[in-house]
Write a structure and sequence with these properties.
Length: about 400
Amino acid sequence: MRPLRDAQRDVLGAIAPLEPVRLELAAANGLALAEPIVALHDLPPFANSAMDGYAVQAADVAEAPVTLQVLEDVPAGSVPTVAVTPGNAIKIMTGAPMPNGADAVVPVEDTEPGTGEVRILVGVSTGTSVRPAGEDVAAGAVVLEAGERLTPARLGVCASLGYHRPLVRRRPKVAVLSTGDEVVPPDTEELGPGKIRDANRFTLRGALQDLGVDVLDLGIVGDDAAELRERLEQGADQADVVVSSGGVSMGEYDLVKHLLAELGSVEFWKVAMKPAKPFAFGQLGKTPFFGLPGNPVSVAVAFEQFLRPALLHMMGASYLFRPRVWGVLAEPVVTDPEKTVFLRVSVRPSDDGRLVASLTGAQGSNILSALAAADAFAVVPVGIAGLDAGALVELEMIQMPEARTAAEVTDG
Ligand code: AMP
Ligand code: MG
C-alpha cells in the first residue's frame, strides 16, 4: 500500500498550473491570482468625512455650543472650493473630501442647522469622523499575493484599486463520468433487477461546482471497453481533467487496465487509506485522469484527498487542502492501524467551547446517508487502532453548517 502522503505528492507533482489569463472581475470569483495586487494609490484616495455633518477646526468648537458661518455645501463626489477658517464650517456628506483647514467633522445630530450658519452643540477633537487618505491601504502596499483565491471581498479590493481585469489562472474544465453496468440515470422510474441509480456523478458535479470549475458531463458508461475508450478520449480531448468513478477495484481492474495503457499512462494504486483504497491516476495523452472508486463515500473522500487539491493546484492556488481543527470524539471508534481513516462525523460546539464530533452513521464506504449528514472527516492516522470517547481528533471540515432558523430569530 502506498502511504497517503506519497500518493498526494505524486498526484500534485504531475499537475501543472494552467496558463494565466486576464478576466473581468465579474468572471473571476473563486479563481487564484497570478499576479500580486499592488496598490497604485492610497485607499481611500483622499481624506474624507466619515459622517454627514460639518467640517470644522476642532479648536474652534472646543467651547461648544458655538455658532459658525457655513461657507458651502459639499456632497459626496464634489470637492470643496474654499478652506475652513476660524469661525466657519463647511457642510459635508459622508465620503466627501475634507476641506483644507478643517481637521474634524461634527455629526449633524450634534448641531442645529440655521440659515447660512450652524450651531455646534458638542465639541470634537482633531481627527474625529475623518478618514485619512491611505487609512485602508497605503500606496505601494501588496494587498493580495499571487496564489490567493478571489473571494467576494477580494474582488471588491481589486475593483477599488482599479484592477478590473486581474491576471488569474483560468478556470479548469473537468469531464465526469460514471461507470458500471448496474448504474442507471437518477430519473429511472422503475429500477430493474440489480440496478442502482447513479449517485456519484451528482456528488462530483456538485463538489466541482462548489470549487468553481466548469463541468463536462460524460454520463454513464457500462462495463464495456469500447464505449469507455470513446468516452475517455472525448474527455481527454475536451477537458483539462477527466474523472471517473467505479471500475478501479480488483474485480474490474482488468477491463480498464489494458485500455488505459493504450490511451496513456495510468497506474492503479492501493493507497493506505480508508475508504478509497483503490485509485487510478495518470495521463490520458496529456490530460490528467483520476479513476475514483465506485462506492459513494470513497468518491467523496478521494475527491477531497486527491482531486480537489489537484484542481486547486491547477488553478494556481497556494493553499490546497481543507482546514483541519481539533475536536473531541463523542464516542469510541475502532480503526485500521495500517491506514489513514476518514470517519464521517457531524461537528457541534459544546457548552465549554470545544468541538464535539459524532459519527453520523455506519462507516461503510457505501453509506451515503452518513456522508450526507457529515460536516467533517475525523482523521485517524496510521498507527492508531482506535480512540476512546473524549479523545482529541483532527477534523477536516468539508462544510460549515448554516446556523439559526428564521423562527429562532423571530421568536428570540
Ligand atoms: P466498483 O468500484 O465499480 O467496483 O463499485 C463499487 C461499488 O460502488 C459497487 O457497489 C457499485 O455498484 C457502486 N457504484 C459504482 N458506481 C456508482 C455510482 N455512480 N453511484 C452509486 N454507486 C455506485
Ligand atoms: Mg463497477
